[in-house]
Amino acid sequence: MNFLESIKGDRIIWIVVVILSLFSLLVVYSSSIGLAYRYKDGHTEYFLFKHTLLTLSGLFVIYYIHNIKITTKELSIIGLVGFPISIILLVFTLVMGVKSGEASRWLEVPGLGITFQSSDVAKITLIIFIARSLAIHKDKLKEFKDVVYKIIFPTALICFLILISNFSTAFLLALTIFYMLFISNVSFKILFKLIGILMLLAVIFISTICFFPNILPRGKTWKSRIENYIKGDNKSNYQVEQAKIAISNGVFIGKGPGNSAQRAFLPQASSDFIYAIIIEEYGTLIGIFILMSFLVIFFRTIRIVQKSKSLFYSYVVAGLSFNMILQAIVNMAVAVNLLPVTGQPLPFISMGGTSLIFSSINIGIILNISRQVYEQERTLTNEDATQNKNIKDIHQAETKLQA
Amino acid sequence: MNNAINIKTNLTFIVFLLISLAIIYKIYVIQFKEGDYWRKRSKEITTKLVEIEASRGNIYDQNYNLLATSLPFYDIGIDVNVPGLDDKTFNQKKDSLAMMLNKLFPEKSKKEYLAMLNKARQENDRYILIKRKASYQELQLVKKLPILRNGKKGGLVVLQNDKRILPFKYLAKRTIGMAREGIKPVGLEGAYDSILKGVSGKRLMQKIAGDVWRPINDDEEIQSKNGKDIVTTLDINIQDVAEHALLKALIKNQATYGSVILMETKTGKIKAIANLVKKDSTTYEESLNYAIGYPSEPGSTFKLASVLALFEEYNVDINEKINVGNGECVYYNQTMKDAHPPHSPVITLEEAFMTSSNVGISKIVTKYFAKNPDRFVYHLSRFHLDKPYNIDIPGEGIPRIKKPKDKDWYGTTLPWMSIGYETLLTPLHILMLYNLVANNGSIVKPMFVEKIEYNGKTLKQFQTEVLSEKVLQPTTIEKAKQLLRSVVEKGTAKSLNITTFKVGGKTGTAQIAKKGKYYTNANDKTYLASFVGFFPLENPLYTCIVTIHSPSKGIYYGGLVAGPVFKEIAEKVYSKSLENVSPLNEKPNNIIHLPFVAGTNTNRLKYLSTNLNLPLPTINENQLIPPISEDSAKYNLLQKDITQIIQNNTIPDLKGVSITEAMPLLEAKGIKVIVKGQGKIKDQSIPPNSKIQKGQKLILTLSSNI
C-alpha cells in the first residue's frame, strides 16, 4: 500500500505506460522465440533478460523522476544549463562519435561502454529551454525579430546540429518547437511569417539535396528515400513492401506471438518497423490499441497543460508530450507507408536501450509536473501568488546566472 | 486558465486523432483492399532453415602433415532482380560488370555475359550461374565487381561447398577413410566423424529460383562450429615407403590384393597401414581395409601361437625332437604335407619352425594337446587371438578360433589349427601376436589417433592402452625370439637377413580355401603369402606384417613374395629411426629457423638468444662458433594463444599461424581479412599488439616456406 501511495501524478498515464512496457516485453519475447533468434543458442534468454532489465530500469527512472522535489526555478535552470551542454555534446558526437550508418549519432559514455544518441539529450533540454523562454518573455514576444532571436535561433542551432546526421529527429524537434509557439501567445501573424520562411528554406534544402546529395553525409539516403516515396516504386522500396506483407497477414487477431515471417526480411524489425510486426503477430485490434494508447497519453497531458498554473510547466509538458507522441505517430505512419521511411523508434516498445531510458525521463518529467499540478489543485492555495512567485523565482535565477 | 491554450491543444489532439484515423485507414487498405495481393506475395516468399555444415576438421599424420582437409568451393551466381538494385544502377554498371566477369572467367565473352544479365533482368529471372566451383580467391575478386560489391543489394548469390581433399592422394586412403551420409563409415573419417564434422549451423534462406536458395541475413542464424582436428599416429613418410614397396610387389607378382601394417611395438601406434587392390595389371588402389577388416586363414604365421602355447603350458625345449618321416602324415582320413621334404626324418622343434614344417608343428602340438585341446585354445585366448581389439576404425574383422565344444571341432581340427587353418584372423591380429613377443609379453591396443586438437590446442591426448601384461613367461619370450631369428638366419626367410640390424619374423604361405575346398586342381590353387616380424630383434621398435593375396606369377612363398616388402620397409624405417634423434612429435608449424649465425662467441649468442627468445644451440662455453646452417637449430614459438589475444581486441603476432585458424577469429571481430599467397602467415599489414578496430583491413601475406 505504501508503495502504491508513493505513485503520484496522472494515474492514467502511469497505467498506459506500464501496459506499453509490459507489451514491449511480449514483443521482445516473440522476437526471441521467432525464427531469427530461436536458434541463436543461448541468446534467447539473453535478449529477454536484457530487455526486462531495461524495462524495469525505465519504470524505475520514471518513478524516481516523478517523485523528485523540484521547483519551476530548478527545472528552468536545467533547461538553461542543459542547452549549452547539449550543443557541446552534439558537436562532440559529430566529431568523435561512434560511426553508425553513414553519420555519427552515438556518443559513448567513457568507461561504461554505454552509447546514447546525444540528440535525445538535446531534445529534452531544448524543449525545457524554449518553454522557459516562452514563459519568461510571454509579454515581450510581440515582434517577429524577438521571436527569431529568443526562440528560432536556439532551435535552429540545435536542429541544424542534429540534422547533419538525423533528418527526421531534427524535423520532429523543429515541429515540436513550432507547436509550442503555436500554443503560446505569439501572434498568428508572426507564425504565418515563420511558416513562409520555413517553407522557402525547405524548398532550398530539398533542391540542394536533390542536386548535390553529397553535401551532407546522409544526403544520398534522404534523396533515394524521398524518390522512392514519391514514385511509390515497390520494386526498389523493399522495406515498405515487406512491412505491407507483414501487415496484410495480421487481420484482426494476427498470426500469434513469435510467428512473424516478415521479421527476417525487415532489417529494422525490432525498432523502426516494429509496428508492422506487432500487427502481423498480434493483429489489427492490438495495433489499434497501441495507437490509441499513445493518443490517451497525449489527451491526459493536454489536461495537465490546461490545468497547470505555471505557464512554464504547461509549455514543458506540451513540448515533451507532443514530441513523444509525434514520434510514435510517425513510427506507425511509416510502418503503414503513410510517410516515407525514417528511423524513429516507437517509444517504450522498440528494442533499443537508451531511447527507452530517454522516453522514461520524458514521461518522468511529465508525471512530476502532473504530480505538482494535482497537488496544487488539491491544496488550492493562493493560485496567483504561486504563479507570480514562480516567475519571480525564474527571474531571480536568471539574474543570478547572468551575474 | 487560458482559453486560447485550451482551444489550441484540443485542436492539436484532433489533428493527432485524424492522423491516427488515417493510419487505421491505411491498415484497412493494406489488409483488405490490397490484402489479397500482399498475402499472395507473402506466399511466394519461400524460406527455410538450411543446415550449414561446419568446416570439417583436418586429419594430420604424427608430424602434422595434412592427410585430409576441406577446401571450400563456391558456386557463384547473380540475382539481377534483387530488391534494391534499381534500373539506373543496373543499366549504368552492367557493361563494366560483364567486362570484368569476362576478365575473371573468360569462358564467356563480354557480350555473352551482358546478354545473360539483360535477359535475366527482363524476364525477372532470379538466378544466373556465373561460375561453378570457384576458389576462395576468385570469390574475393567477384565480391569487388561493380553491382555485386553492394552486398545484399548487389544480388551476389554464393553457395559454398566443401570438398574433402587428401593431399597425399591414395596414401593410407582407406584408413583415412570417408564419412558421407548414406554410406557406412569408413576409416578415421568414419570413426571420428562426430569430432571432425563440428556442429552445423542453420541459416535462413529464401528460394529464388529452381533449387537455388539465397541467405536472407548476413550471418548464420546459428553459427556453425568448426570441426576439431585429429592427429593420427600415421607417419606419411613411412606410409609412403610401405605403400610403394607393397605396390611394387603386387605388380611384380600380379597379386589381387595386399596389405601392410607397421606398428610401433611399445605403444601400439600404427605408423603405416596400406591396402592395395588390383584394378588392372599396373594399377592398384586403396579401396578396402583388408589389413583390419578381412579375417582369413593365416597359415604358417600362426605357428608362433602354437609354439607359444607349448612353451607356456609344457615349457617345451626348442631342441625337442620330432619325427617327421618323409614330410607326410595322416590325421584320420586327411593327409598333411610339407611344402619341401625334410632333410632328415627326425628334426628339432627349432628346425620344424624355421623350415615351417606343417608335419613337425602339428605333430608336436597334437602330442601335447590332443588330450586336452581346451588348454591349447585357452592359451590362444590369452594371446587375444579370439576377440577383436575394438580399435577406433569401424569394420574390424571378428576373429574365429574354434573351441573343442564347437560343433565343427573335428578330429582334424587341432593339427590343422596348429598350422594356421580352420581359424580366421585378420592381418592385424597376426601382427598383434608377434607384437606380444616383441613387446615382452604385453598386449597393447593398436592406436590410430594420438590427439584431438582445436585451433592448435590439444583437447584430448590418447595414451597407449595396455590390455594385459606379462602374458608370456620370460623363457617363452626368449625361446620365441630365437625361433623367429632362426627363420630369418637360416630358415624360410633367409632373403631377409639384413646385416645392419637383426630382424625376427615368420613367413606364411597359406592355401586359400575356395568354396570351402583347398584342393581343386593345381592351377587353381591360390595362396596368401605373408611375412610378419619385428626389428631390431634385441629391443624391437617396430612390428610389421605384409600380406599378399593370390600372387599369380608362379612364386607364392611368403618369404619370396611378402619378404622383400618387409625388408624394404624395415631398412628404410630403421635408417629413418636413426636419423630422427629429435622427438618425433615436434610440431613443424611451430618451428622456425634460427637465422644464420657465424663468427661470434657463445656469450654473445646467449645474449641474443634470450632477448630474441631463441633457443641456444648446444655449444661449449666461450667458444668461437663456427658457421651453423639454418637447419641446425629449431625452436618452438611460444604457444601463441591467438584466440585469447583476439578476444582482448588486440591483433596478435600471426607469423606462422595457419590462415584457417586466424581467419574466423579475426572476421568475428569485424576485421576485413585480405589474404595473399598460400601457406602459413608470413606477414601482416597491421603490427602485433595494435588495437582491433571494426571494419579495418588486415592484409595477410602467406608463404609456404616459413
Give short descriptive properties of this protein.
A: 403 residues, 2 domains, three-stranded antiparallel β-sheet, 15 helices, B: 706 residues, alpha+beta, Beta-lactamase, 4 domains, seven-stranded mixed β-sheet, six-stranded antiparallel β-sheet, elongated
Summarize the model shown.
The complex is a heterodimer of chains A (403) and B (706). By secondary structure, chain A is mainly alpha-helical.
How do the strands and helices of this protein lay out in sequence?
The complex is a heterodimer of chains A (403) and B (706).
Chain A lengths: L1 H5 L4 H23 L1 H4 L4 H24 L5 H25 L1 E3 L2 E7 L4 E4 H19 L7 H20 L3 H17 L4 H24 L7 H13 L6 H11 L25 H34 L3 H25 L17 H27 L3 H20 L1
Antiparallel strand pairs in A: 1-2, 2-3
Chain B lengths: L2 H31 L1 H10 L2 E6 L6 E2 L5 E13 L8 H18 L5 H13 L5 E7 L1 H7 L13 E10 L7 H4 L10 H5 L1 H4 L4 E9 L2 E4 L13 E4 L3 H18 L3 E8 L5 E11 L2 E3 L4 H4 L9 H12 L6 E3 L4 E4 L2 E4 L8 E3 H6 L3 H12 L3 H10 L17 E2 L11 H6 L4 E2 L2 H12 L4 E2 L4 E6 L2 E5 L4 E3 L5 H17 L13 E8 L15 E9 L6 E8 L8 H4 L1 H17 L11 E3 L8 H11 L21 E3 L5 H6 L11 H10 L3 E5 L3 E5 L12 E7 L3
Parallel strand pairs in B: 2-8, 27-29
Antiparallel strand pairs in B: 1-6, 2-3, 3-4, 3-5, 6-7, 8-19, 9-10, 9-24, 10-11, 12-15, 13-14, 16-17, 18-21, 19-20, 22-23, 23-24, 25-26, 28-29
Helix pairs in contact in B: 3-4, 9-19, 11-13, 11-14, 11-17
Number of folding domains of chain A?
Answer: 2
Overall outline of chain A: globular
The tally of beta strands of chain A, per DSSP, is 3
Strand content of chain B: 15-25%
**Number of DSSP helices of chain A?**
15
Mean pLDDT of chain A: 82
Largest interface: A-B, 51 and 42 residues
Helix content of chain A: over 70%
Assign a percent range to the helix content of chain B.
25-40%
Specify the oligomeric state: heterodimer
Structural class by helix and strand composition of chain A: mainly alpha
**Count of extended strands of chain B:** 29
Going by CATH, what is the homologous superfamily of the largest domain in chain B? DD-peptidase/beta-lactamase superfamily
Biggest sheet details of chain A: 3 strands, antiparallel
Could you give the order of the helices and strands of chain A? HHHHHEEEHHHHHHHHHH
Which structural class fits the helix and strand makeup of chain B?
A: alpha+beta
State Rg of chain B. Answer: 35 Å
**What is the C-alpha radius of gyration of chain A, as a whole number of Å?**
22 Å
Assigned CATH architecture of the largest domain in chain B: 3-Layer(aba) Sandwich
Q: In CATH terms, what is the fold-level topology of the largest domain in chain B?
A: Beta-lactamase
Q: Quick one: CATH class of the largest domain in chain B?
A: Alpha Beta
